[in-house]
Amino acid sequence: MKQLSNQFLFVFLAVVVIYLLYSLSPILTPFVFGALLAYLANPLVTHLDKHLPHLLSVSLIFLGLFALLSILCLLLSPLIGNQLRALIDVIPQVINWMQETFIPWLTELIPIDTIKSTLASMLPKSGLVISTILHSSHTLIIWIMNIVLIPVVTFYLLRDWHLILNNIQHNLPSKIKSTVVQLANECNEVLSAFFRGQLIVMLTLSLIYGIGLTLVGLKVGLVIGVIGGLLCIIPFVGSIFVVVTASITAYVQFGTWEHVAWVLCVYAVGQTIESYILTPYLIGHRIGLHPVAVIFSIMAGGTLFGFFGILAALPAAAVIVVLLRFLRAELRHAPA
Length: 336
Hints:
This protein is mainly alpha-helical. Helices cover 90% and strands 0% of the residues. It folds into 2 domains: 25-168, no CATH class; 175-336. It contains 11 helices and no strands. The chain is globular, with a radius of gyration of 24 Å. It starts with a helix and ends with a helix.
């Protein structure tokens, strides 16, 4: 009877936590983002703690990251500005190409009435979304607060990271402490390997695509490459973005299929390096999720919890995978 009541209490607490996360999801984004940054930077602080006082280690790492981001922003601002101006110049050309070439070709495949009805149903919704984003002062204030809160949350979590973990471990019931610590270590192993490996993969692909598309001659090659590399955290999405966007831009800019072929060559080089070098050695199957499951996790997290859900989707999925492995092992060894 006591075991049944404990199970009921556990389920009740889990439901309450999920409901609170769902209700508070609009304000959780800076805390999740700050926790992720603190989690990724904690090994550096741990290494410096061997030689320096803890607060000094945290301050040096925090200031170093801030200084690095500031220097990158200062160095890349002129380049980003040029890319944005080039993007603004390219957009009218893409629109003209779609009106003069793509839409006539599309109408030959799909009846014009179907296209009109589809666009008519989509435009009011998209217009409402755009107007809401552009004219909502509340949304702007929330984004500004999130940007300000992220470094604050990161600093305090980084300073008290080990203290928080020790307090949690100290307050665990003795019966489950060893099991929880074991599961936490497995989750940490999965998450650290995935995030650090995925970060290197994203940055490498951003460089490959950005430099490659720029060498091809695309005016907005760097922007497309960087966005495509960052989107590679979602399986297939970054690849599709690079191929479609860069191919259309190349054809509109040069008017020949030769440059489209060069774009596909850049994509092929990036995919080859990712598939045979980066992913196998840096990530492998550490997260234990099928690519379709990764896509579903991100979409489900975004649908249920918004941007906070997108950030927390993969960590939550990785933790769930570890828990399911533990449950399967327990069921296998359970007496019949």
